Amino acid sequence: MYCPQCGQQQTSDQVRFCSRCGFLLEAVSAVLAGKGMVPRYVQPGPQQLSPRSKGVRQGALMMLSTLFIVPVMAIIIVGILDGPGEIVALAAVSCFIGGLLRMIYALLMEDAYPPVNNIQMPTYAPPAPQQFGQPGRNVALPPASVNNTSNWRRPTTSELVRPASVTENTTRLLDRDDPNNR
Hints:
41% of the residues lie in helices and 0% in strands. It has 182 residues and is mostly helical. Among the domains are: 1-43, no CATH class; 51-109. It is elongated, with a radius of gyration of 40 Å. The mean pLDDT is 77.
């Protein structure tokens, strides 16, 4: 792809800006993908959360789930089944500590930036269809009859004139200037 502003050839069709003038090339790719039609607007996709944000949310949800899980377990285990109350206490501690550990892990170990979704735009767009009855541009090569090469023949090297040697002429000049050679 070539930059429409300065004509610099780009190394890849995936670059976002021209390396010479800084022109935004994403719009050019969008026009090429739209077969020459300018898009009305470019709506960004849904913003993804970073792994760190997801981890913090999961940890907070685990900690808050303690408020729901522990009373329900206490009603079922202790109230209905007459089980030991230590199970309820163990569930409360594990949910709260598990959520806390998940949040700490997310803050220390996970990436703070969301993953980048590179939407691959097609590198080739077919020519635009005719508009308003005007004939389309000819994008093909001219017919072979226009570039007739039947009269051309390869020159033979025996026809070429051999240039004179530079060293012979220089040697003659030196011999003329030398007083011992006279």
